[in-house]
Amino acid sequence: VERLISAKVIEGATIKLGDGRYAQQNLMVTLLIELADDRASTIEKFKKSIVQEAAVQDALYTAGEFDVVLRISLGKMEDYDRLLERLCNRNALVRRFKTLTALRRLK
Fold first, then answer.
1. 80, 69, 66: which is closest to 34 by C-alpha?
2. Predicted structure pTM score
3. CB of 11 closer than 8 Å to CB of 5
4. Which residues contact 53 (CB under 8 A, 6 or more apart)?
5. Above 90 in pLDDT, residue 11?
């Protein structure tokens, strides 16, 4: 993993083994985010704000109505509320967001 990071093949990889907190994560949320603007500096600042968030499983910069799509896995809704407060509600880089909550896994 370290070689892939140093070769810039992957960024910000975090591996945690044996941590029971992640075994019971059954709340799956897709968070659609519209950034305040499309400047490269805004995108980079937002990227830095999500890199250390263990709950963020996947992050995509997209074209269309929303700029960023985050796939999030958490244990309970209270955890999501705290994450949302950090990433969106108190973040001037975020213009608006939309939440899609998975009811059950189909595949």
1. 66
2. 0.74
3. yes
4. 83, 86, 87
5. no
